[in-house]
Amino acid sequence: MQRALIGAVLLAVILGFFGVFMVPRKLSFMADGIAHASLFGIAVGLLVGGMPLLWAIGLAAILGCFLAKISDNESIPMDAVIGICLVGGMSGALITMTFIPGYKPELFSYLFGSILGIGWDDIYILGVLTAITLVMFKMQWRTLVITTIHNDLSKVLGLKANTAKYFLFIGTSIALIGGVKLLGVILISALLVIPYSSASLIGKSLKSCVILTQIIAITGTIAGIFISYIFDFPTGPAIGLFLVTIYILAATYAKIRAQPIWWKSQHTPLD
Amino acid sequence: MTSKVFSSQANIIECEEITVIRDNKEILCAASCCVPRNSLTFLVGENGTGKTTLVQTMLGILPQREGKISVHSLNREKVNIGYVPQSIEFPKQLQLTVAEYLRYVSNLDTEDIQNSLGIVDFPLSHLPKTINQLSGGQRQKLLLAAELSRKPDILFLDEPLSNVDDTGEKHILDVILEIKNKGVTIILITHDWQMVSTYADHVICLNKNFLCEQGTSCICKNSLSKVNIKQIQKITPDPLNTHDGYCYIENV
Questions:
Q1: Contact call for A200 and B128, based on CB within 8 A
Q2: Whole-angstrom Cα distance, residue B239 to residue A187?
Q3: Which residues have a Cβ under 8 Å from the Cβ of B39 and sit 6 or more positions away?
């Protein structure tokens, strides 16, 4: 339980920060694409007998690099390419699995997550990954904000837009795979997409959105783990469903805030 | 086409026979032009002739396949360049406020932010608003304020008045003339011939599918002939004297 909580919070922090830039760039689908495609790496790892997660991280880094490379080319539709990666990775994984004889329980643990399987080694790796990610965000923050607004502007300002772009794509890909053990391939995109999507409905500035993103991501994972513990639910879906509930509440609040509510409409300026 | 020789003292930017290809399509073909130092240079031409492409190539945003672009500094210091694009589609989910935008782009503190917004007559009450809540004209003013605050030596403006109302237009024009008088070189894309004829120190005209020197179909010559060409000719002689002083990019 202790390891699960630490691991989940570290992962929520990392993916929350990446979500701040991936969601406004309309790259949310990349989380699903990379996570599903990484199954091919896991399957190869299971087949050759290495650490499946390392194979998956290697494949995700290559895909992240490839997507970063083509992201500036306006004639290539990113969502279609991500979809192709997803189909290719999943198909490759399923065919590779046919070469492994017998029942494959590991595959299901990667598909749906198995947070109680997290060991201290995993926590140390996640801790190092979090530290590196936070330092990189500190160094690249301004460039990431400006390239998200307008890529050309960053070139005029003399910023190293390419460094920031490759950090964002490769970092997101690796962080997603780092979270596969927690939420599984199918649900890991929840931590990347939902916290910032909810925060942007409530926040009134970028700073407030970043703070809200972290609050929602951390609260969502901790609450999800406790709910799964109390009610004996699977952890990944419990976290996912809790985050979806937060999003629905945020969307409802944003809708109410945007409408002239009854007590405002009853007061005219003459009052 | 022969290569042209420019004076680096007189010209701040020189483009020599640049060819630019975008999406496998040749947009500029061996185009040469120069931008005189401390001038208000207008970039004119019909839609699709490559005005924005030329500006983005000068800025280094787009690579040129052939040719050379030189930016000359008088004191050997790096030339500071500003750019206000025609329009920016701000990502709707990035809740960036006006104040945050200025801080990120220009590294300004609160007092400087207020000063730079005051220059372009941008209401300070909009500071806490997100950029997506601004109108097109207000965004244009914000982009201009951000670039002015960076104190550029050269300022590129891509149709800066396209979304601005009449009052705002006059104010921005005054601001442009004022910073020009302070020594900033301005390159402005526009379709407003009246403005070109009134304020231009130098005009670069881009054409498509014909050579300017072949005569009557030149949009620049035809449009300016109705207004004050002679003044522009007097101020801006063409280096090769081929096009009466205001038309020397041929885009075939």
A1: no
A2: 65
A3: B180, B185, B186, B201, B202, B236
Looking at the complex, does the CB of residue B152 fall below 8 Å from at least one CB of chain A? no
- Select the residue from A72, A153, A198 to test the B interface by mutation, using most B Cβ atoms within 10 A: A153
Phi-psi region of B87 (alpha: psi -120 to 50; beta: other; left: phi over 0): beta
Q: Is the pTM of this model over 0.90?
A: no
What's the gap between Cα B78 and its chain centre? 19
Hey, what are A95's tokens?
A: 């065919």
Summarize pLDDT for B98-133 with one digit per residue, the tens. 989 988 988 877 778 888 888 888 888 888 899 988
ipTM of the shown complex? 0.82
- What residue of B is the nearest CA neighbor of A203? B95
Q: Tokens representing A4? A: 């699960």
The residues, any chain, with a CB within 8 Å of residue A180's CB and separated by 6 or more, are A35, A38, A42, A53, A56, A110, A113, A188
- Residue given tokens 């929350």 in the structure block: A16
Interface of A with B (CB under 8 A): 23-26, 74-75, 142, 145-146, 148-150, 152-153, 155-157, 196-197, 200, 203-209
Q: Are A29 and B96 in contact, with CB atoms under 8 Å apart?
A: no
| AA letter at A115 | I
What CA–CA distance (Å, rounded) separates B79 from B92? 33
